Amino acid sequence: MLKKPTVAVTRKLPKQVEIKMSELYNVSLNKDDKPFTKLELINLVKTVDILICGVTDVIDADIISSAGKNLKLVANFGVGVNHIDLQAATRKNIIVSNTPDVLTEDTADLALTLILMTARRAGEGERIVRKNAWTGWTPTQLMGTRVFEKTLGIIGMGRIGQALAKRAKGFGMKIHYHNRRPCNKEIEDEIESIYFENLEEMLPTVDFLSINTPFTNETANIINSSRLDLLKSNCILVNTARGGIVDEDALIHSLKTKTIAGAGLDVYDGEPKINPEFFQLENVVLLPHLGSATLETRVAMGFRVIANIEKFLENNSVVDNVI
Ligand code: DGY
User: Fold this and answer.
1) How many percent of the chain have pLDDT more than 90?
2) pLDDT attached to residue 2
3) Is-catalytic flag, 271?
4) How does pLDDT run across 230-254, given as a tens digit for each residue?
5) Ligand 1 atom 6: residue of nearest CA
6) Which of 323, 312, 322 has the alpha carbon at shortest distance from 100?
7) What is the rounded distance in angstroms from the CA atom of residue 62 to the CA atom of residue 41?
8) pLDDT of 36 higher than 70
C-alpha cells in the first residue's frame, strides 16, 4: 500500500469529517480549535504534503515560500480564497482548491435572514425581550418596513446571488442585479431580474442591496461613500460576502446620518475584530460570519475537501481548482 499523505488541518472540523480524514490520511487535527499563529503555520507547511485551511488562516507569501518541497496542495475549507496568496502558490506550483456549491443554499438563507431581521427590526425586538424590558404590544412599537413588492439589488449574480434571488422572488420582491456580465436568458427569465451593467445606475433603484460577490482587488471597497450616497434613504444593505467589499467607515457614517435605513452584516473587515461604532447603532444587525454554518453544509464542505484531495492523489488535479 502507498504511504498515506501527511495532512494538516488548521481548525476543528465536524466529527464525521475528521473521522473520515483520519481513516484516509496521516492527519494532524486541531482538537482545541485555537487558530494557528503565523509562525505555527510557517512551521506546519515545512513538513506536510497537504494543508487544509480556512478563512481565518492568512496564507500569505511568507507562509507559502516557507513550504517544504512536499506541499503541493492547499485545500481550502470554504469558497472564498481571498486569504490565500494565489500568485505565490502558483509560483511554487502549489494547487489551491475550495468548496463551492455546497454552501450556496445556506448562505443565501442567511442573506435573506439578514434582510428580514433588519427590515423587521428583529434584533432590536430581541434585545428588548431579552432585557425583560417589553411592556406589551402597542400600535406603533418597532414598526419596520415591508419586503413584499420591494426591489432587491444584488451585486454579484453567481451561485449565491442566484439562490438569494430565487428566495426573494418567493417573498414577492423584484430583482435588480449588477454583475460583470448578464446571466444567461434562462436564469434571468426564471428570476425575472433586470441587469444593470452600471452599478451607479442600479443603486438608486433598490430598497435592499445584497453583496454577493467575491472579495478581489476589483471589489475591495466597491461600496464606498459616493456609492452609498446613491442609495435611497429607506435602503437596507446586507453583506454576507466579505467585509472589505464595503468601506465600513463610510457605512457607519451613512447609518448614523440615516442616509440609509439599516444594515445586516455577517462579515467584517479585519474580523473577528468589529468596528465598535457598529455596536452603538440600533439599525444594524450583526452576525458572526454564519453564512455556511449549518451542520449539513459544514459536513458537505469537509467532504468536498476530501473529494479534492482524493482527486489530487489520483492524478495531481482537483475538482475545484481556484487558480
Ligand atoms: C466561505 O466559504 O468563503 C465562507 O465565508 C466561510 O469561509
Assistant:
1) 98
2) 65
3) yes
4) 999 999 999 999 999 999 999 999 9
5) 78
6) 322
7) 10
8) yes
Q: Which residue is catalytic, options 18, 188, 190, 271?
A: 271
The helix/strand/coil state of 171 is coil
Count other C-beta atoms under 10 Å from residue 25's C-beta. Answer: 21
Q: Which protein residue has the closest C-alpha to ligand 1 atom 4?
A: 78
Distance between CA atoms of residues 106 and 296, nearest Å:
9
Residue nearest to atom 2 of ligand 1 (CA): 78
First to last CA, the chain: 31
- CA neighbor of 108 nearest in space, from 56, 57, 164: 164
Q: Where are the beta strands (DSSP E) in 132-227?
A: 151-155, 174-178, 193-196, 208-211
In this prediction, residues 16-29 reach a mean pLDDT of: 98
- All three cell numbers of 199, joined, read 452599478
**Sequence-ordered alpha helix ranges (H) in the chain:** 15-24, 38-47, 61-66, 86-91, 104-119, 122-130, 159-170, 185-191, 199-202, 225-228, 248-256, 295-315
Distance of CA 237 to the CA centre of its chain: 15
What atom in ligand 1 is closest to the CA of residue 99? 2
pLDDT above 70 for 1: no
> Is 289 an active-site residue?
yes
Q: What is the DSSP letter of 143?
A: -
Measure the CA–CA gap between 258 and 233, rounded to whole angstroms: 7
Domains of the chain in sequence order = 6-102+295-315 (3.40.50.720), 104-286 (3.40.50.720)
User: Which residue of 103, 239, 304 sits with most ligand 1 atoms within 8 Å of its CB, as the best mutation to test the pocket?
Assistant: 103
